[in-house]
Design a protein that fits this description.
Elements lengths: L1 H13 L5 H20 L10 H13 L4 H20 L26 H8 L7 H16 L3 H5 L6 E2 L4 E5 L5 E5 L2 H19 L18 H14 L9 H13 L4 H8 L4 H4 L1 H17 L4
Antiparallel strand pairs: 1-2, 2-3
């Protein structure tokens, strides 16, 4: 897959004369697409379907990419797969129909409070990996952190005595993320009993450590969340970002105001936060239909 991606980038530079910045943006988008496809078990561009491309685009929505970045992702995919099709490297072009307005505005998916509770109880606290996983899941649900913010956390950003994390998010904006008792306790136990055991002889400042002692990656977080979701009986296509969506929606359902939620999520524009009001309204309608004697 890398070989044809490299050929495409050379084509953009040498034959189409695109700027270095544009080519780098295409490269970043398409290499992230390749990583996404690898997580789905795809090893050839010929295996890619429209559903795979939609899933990748929705991941950009989950990560709260700007409209401009999401539009560029669509452009990158359309241009690349048109190129592959012209070279007869794929049987058909899966990116042909990626212009649908409905495709561009999906509401975020989330977990119910019961599903969250089941997920948080799956890690085994008697092992170092279980302590790490519990600290990870509790922290993500308690703070609403993005996956990138979580894996990039360093020890100096963790303030357990004061009960918050010091986050540097998108646009290099800094914010404080309150932890709550459950997450603070899980982090404390992980730091005392789990992290050192996982580090072995390695040394680095990242909070989260993988089983080899190195920093935990975004892909590692995906695997952890999905593995514990299956153990918890959650058989939907769950992503780590669903914990952020659940955090936001559950706060709104329990009386949080939109401005406070904007600050907690680290959104530059409150219009990004407002999508959660629509999600909360839909959930209220579902609860009404399910429980009202005359729905």
């Amino acid at each position: 897959m890398d070989a044809w991606l490299d050929r495409f980038l050379i084509h953009l530079t040498a034959e189409r004369g695109l700027s270095l910045n544009t080519v780098e943006a295409y490269s970043r988008d398409l290499r992230e697409l390749a990583d996404y496809l690898a997580r789905s078990g795809i090893s050839s561009w010929a295996q890619v379907t429209e559903a795979h491309l939609q899933g990748y685009w929705r991941e950009g929505v989950d990560e709260e990419l700007s409209k401009r970045s999401r539009a560029r992702r669509l452009s990158s995919m359309r241009t690349f797969f048109k190129y592959l099709h012209q070279w007869e490297k794929i049987p058909g072009n899966p990116a042909l129909r990626l212009r649908s307005p409905r495709f561009l505005s999906p509401l975020p998916e989330l977990l119910s409070p019961k599903e969250v509770e089941a997920l948080l109880q799956r890690p085994d606290p008697s092992t170092p990996l279980g302590l790490r996983d519990r600290a990870l899941l509790e922290s993500m649900y308690a703070t609403g952190l993005r996956v990138g913010e979580m894996v990039n956390l360093e020890l100096l950003q963790v303030h357990l005595d004061a009960g918050y994390l010091q986050i540097r998010g998108k646009g290099d904006r800094e914010r404080l993320a309150p932890l709550g008792d459950w997450a603070a306790d899980a982090l404390k136990e992980y730091l005392e009993k789990g992290r050192g055991a996982l580090l072995k002889k390695k040394r680095h400042d990242r909070l989260l450590v993988n089983h080899r002692g190195g920093p935990l990656t975004r892909q590692g977080v995906w695997k952890i969340v999905r593995a514990h979701a299956l153990k918890a009986g959650i058989h939907r296509n769950i992503s780590p970002h669903m914990l952020r969506h659940s955090f936001a929606t559950h706060l709104l359902e329990n009386g949080a105001d939109l401005r406070s939620l904007q600050a907690l999520l680290g959104h530059a524009d409150i219009s990004t936060t407002q999508i959660y009001t629509h999600v909360a309204q839909l959930r209220l309608k579902e609860i009404h239909r399910e429980h009202h004697p005359r729905p």
